[in-house]
Amino acid sequence: RFCLPLVLAPLPVMATGEQIPPALQDSWGDFWLFRFFVNAAGYASIVVPGFLLIQYFKRRNYLETGRGICFPVIKSCVFGSEVKSVHQEDGSLPPRAEPTESSTTRQVFKLLFCAAGLQASYLTWGVLQERVMTRTYGATETDPGEKFTDSQFLVFMNRILAFTVAGLYCALTKQPRHGAPMYKYSFASLSNILSSWCQYEALKYISFPTQVLAKASKVIPVMMMGKLVSRKSYEYWEYLTAALISVGVSMFLLSSAPNRHMSTVTTFSGIVLLGGYIIFDSFTSNWQDALFTYKMSPVQMMFGVNVFSCLFTVGSLLEQGALLESIHFMARHSEFTAHAVLLSVCSACGQLFIFYTINQFGAAVFTIIMTLRQAFAILLSCLIYGHAVTVVGGLGVAVVFVALFLRVYARSRMKKRSKKLPPGDTPVQKV
């Protein structure tokens, strides 16, 4: 316990000689790698006892011998109903509901509503995310103000609201009979928490446009994770567009702008955190895809994952004493409170718009809307926060989004072809 700070203390200086802002050099406790290990230790204090309990109940054959009022809870958490459904073509996506003889005008208004909802939710979320993590609160002529540094608290705020929204939705609408053991959600929850934490933390070291572009390129690690986790195979066009995305991202990252400000410098820590975000997020999507072999709705998935996310984050925050510190920060700065609440509302509403858009128009239309959102997010961030992008960097951004649209077009063509295949033929699985 006492050796850990001594080991981690020199790490900020050793990170390939990068220049870390003075605000991040106040103490070894402010270094992101130390906070990562502290958070991981908090999650482990919940995961390890839970794992031991699960193994205990399985060894005792509790499903056959268990009795009492706790039996239904333990059965649901450890064993589930073990009833699986046929794996759907799009993995985590439910079959799209065909429109029932509605007019073209009504469908157009629905599409505009979905597009506006997604753009408003996630563009506002992106602007607020950069504001909270890169700017100070309470600044005056004599006082420089203070920054909010605990990314885990923001993750907790997002998850607690998403958990509430998903719970209310499940309670008020008819859902499929749940069959998955609850503990299986914890894997996706843990990777989802870590990916969100890396996403917030990375903004301390890189610009928001860089982060958005890196998120757009996550199809590459998703493909790699798909081969490892789900043993998927891919078409040649998927490898081609992945290569184009890599080229575009490299052009953007390697381009140098004149008069670079510290906030736009891509540092080593930022690259590592972005890598962590992409790896954890890729695992999350593939694990959720595997969980959908059980009969469940996307909102049930949202609820199950966020149950464990709330448990992990609040447990870790309480163990560190960071929950009260963050609440005190909210009490000192009402502007931060408004930003944090709006950030959570946008995140939860955005997830509901995702489910509704995919259900009404399918995954291809949804992907086009979200790809446009990423392009708008880069433009909006540059306009509001003054990020500089060179000609080469702008060309790299264009290459990335052209490759993403090519993926959407090629996927839609492959789906049309797969519908015409003979019953015995099976199309190649796609991401």
Account of the 3D structure:
The structure is a single chain. This protein has one domain. The two termini are 43 Å apart. Helix 6 runs antiparallel to helix 15, helix 9 (208-216) packs antiparallel against helix 11 and helix 16 runs antiparallel to helix 17 (391-419). It is built from 17 helices and no strands. The protein has helices at residues 3-8, 11-14, 32-59, 62-65, 71-79, 104-134, 151-172, 185-202, 208-216, 219-229, 236-254, 268-291, 298-320, 322-332, 334-361, 363-385, 391-419. The protein has 431 residues and is mainly alpha-helical. 69% of the residues lie in helices and 0% in strands. Mean pLDDT is 79; it is low at 1-26, 85-101, 257-265 and 424-431. The longest helix is centred in the N-terminal third of the chain and has 31 residues, at 104-134. InterPro entries: EmrE-like, SCL35B1-4/HUT1. One of its GO terms (molecular function) is 3'-phosphoadenosine 5'-phosphosulfate transmembrane transporter activity.
